[in-house]
Amino acid sequence: MTRVLVVHHDLDLAGQEVDSLRRFGYDVIECSGPTWNRCPVLEGRPCDLAERADVLVYDVWASGDAEGARTLIENIRDIHPDTPVVLTSPGLQLAWEESIGPHAVTPLLGQPTGARLHEAIQSALGSVTPR
After folding, report:
1. For the ranges 89-98, 100-109, 113-122, which has the lowest average pLDDT?
2. Which pLDDT value is given to residue 11?
3. Is the residue at 37 inside a domain?
4. Least confident among 35-44, 64-73, 78-87
5. How many domains does the chain have?
6. CATH no. for residue 21?
7. Residue 104: closest CA among 89, 122, 82
8. Residue 131 lies in a domain
9. Which residues, other chains included, contact 94 with Cβ-Cβ below 8 Å and sequence gap of 6+?
């Protein structure tokens, strides 16, 4: 069973994503991110929850602001380079999002329904290349 870590600043939306992913058969771990917790990733340290996950689903606003989000995603990619990241965003893709290279993410723009999350996760898992 694929284990997914969902990191979202909005607890209600996170709950919806978690429920949707569980219906698709994923084993889901939930974290409210650095807006609610102390985040080791922002301090450049590994995240215990991320280490147990096969794929990471991050809300683009998980850190509370755009610059913090960039730092968070760049750090998670540096610290956990072999774990794919799906980056959800309700609006436009941010200029700093990368689809290739060491900070690459699989973007999911718009409403993150269960089906769309499932598709993005499968795409992210399929794009993992061994190091």
Report:
1. 89-98
2. 87
3. yes
4. 64-73
5. 1
6. 3.40.50.2300
7. 82
8. no
9. 60, 66, 69, 70
